Amino acid sequence: MSKKRHILSKSTFIRGLQCHKSLYLYKNRYELRDPIPKERQAIFNRGHKVGHLAQQLFPGGKDASPPKRFAFAESVAMTKRFIESGETVIYEAAFQHEQVLVLLDILVKRDDKWYAYEVKSSSRITPTYIKDAALQHWVITNSGLPLEDFSIVYINKHYVRNGQLDLEQLYTKVSVLHKILPKQEKIPQKVWEMKEVVFSDTMPKQPIGPHCSDPYDCDFRGFCWPKLPAHPIFELTGASRKEQFSMYAQGIDQIANIPDSVVLSREQKIQKEAVVKGKPVIQKKPLQQFMKSLQYPLHVTDFEVFMPAIPLYNNTSPYQHLPFQYSILRLNDPQSEGHQTSFLAEAGEDPRGQFLALFLKDTAGDGSILGFDLTLEKSILHKLADQFPEHEADIDDRIARMKDLQSLFDDRAYYHPAMRGRFSLKHLIEAFAPEISEQNLMINNGRLASEAFTQLQTETDMFRAIDIREALIAYCESDTRVMYHLLREIQEAVA
Q1: Would you say residue 226 lies in a domain?
Q2: How far apart, in whole angstroms, are the C-alpha atoms of residue 380 and residue 326?
Q3: Is 2 a domain residue?
């Protein structure tokens, strides 16, 4: 095992496969890297938890993690000592070959043969996982340790918890040796090429392209991408990344400049028209029909869910959408400014029973239930009907009363250029409720809300917990306020 400092790791190798320029910047101009989004950091944290729990599949092992940050040489030496001393289970085993470092989640010895296990928090095996497993196998075996097999361990999304966690059911172990062995012969050349990139005196010339987000969003976009004009071609709805970059390469850098010779879909024509005119494109008839279908009192409603990778409660599965919060803005008539009602579950308890009981209470009686993209809400209510069959009739009533505001924007009955080709509630805020967008909420999207509630499950700082709860309530209520603004905008459009 080489004692030289490593040049490449599994993550930088995958980065280099995606883009040589990104690899060069990461190794030579790290300060130019974009800040890590909170959502991505949450995914990293989840991966660590899933990986740590998976160690219990092979209990009693020795941990070869670095004793201090970046002390990987010590991890490599520690792994070697564990192997030589007869240990049969090693966590975070470290190997280095040709100045390429890899860390393996779990290394197991059975019947005098070694087996490698790499843990993923995903519920499937991706092509990228195969590539990094191939690199791990190459480094480990060339370091002098033959492997009998190499498996990827991932989450079984069909597992249903009933009592204590059954780790053998929660995790799926699949051998990928037959997929990674054919890739071994090409790895030395790839490693050599990436070392040349790292030590080059000049940065590689790599134009922007679909690779900037495949397989991962590059974290040097802020440096690499030019300043784009208003409504760039990359906002064109219904166009693939490949199609957008093809037009960009032809000099079509913004939607307004798309030549008439380019065949556009109906939705794209409406988007271009709105951009060129600088104002919304409105189809009054479907807007009028939608408004007439609403019955008051109107319950403007938003749900929030969290999706723990490791099921916390009985009768739940990995990544199942579990409702923990709702906000309802009740409008008694078309001129009403509304009355707000909110629910946020307590940490540490299965939220579903109380969520359902209070939601049914707060939506009892008549009136439409207005939401935005109600696919999730309806799915949650159907699941709750299975769990609480005694409330099935009431749940069916609530679903029947639901009206989806998103349908108007999906059908382009109303398209505002500030929507920028996107149709989530978050992106509509900028177009219809900029004062809410400018509030600088601590939590401003569903993923952060999910992660915040997950954090509450283990938060021991009372004041921190209070701050998180207040931020969750503010965010959920802001979504109903955005829908209120959308409703007022539509009322004015059809007036």
Answers
A1: no
A2: 12
A3: no
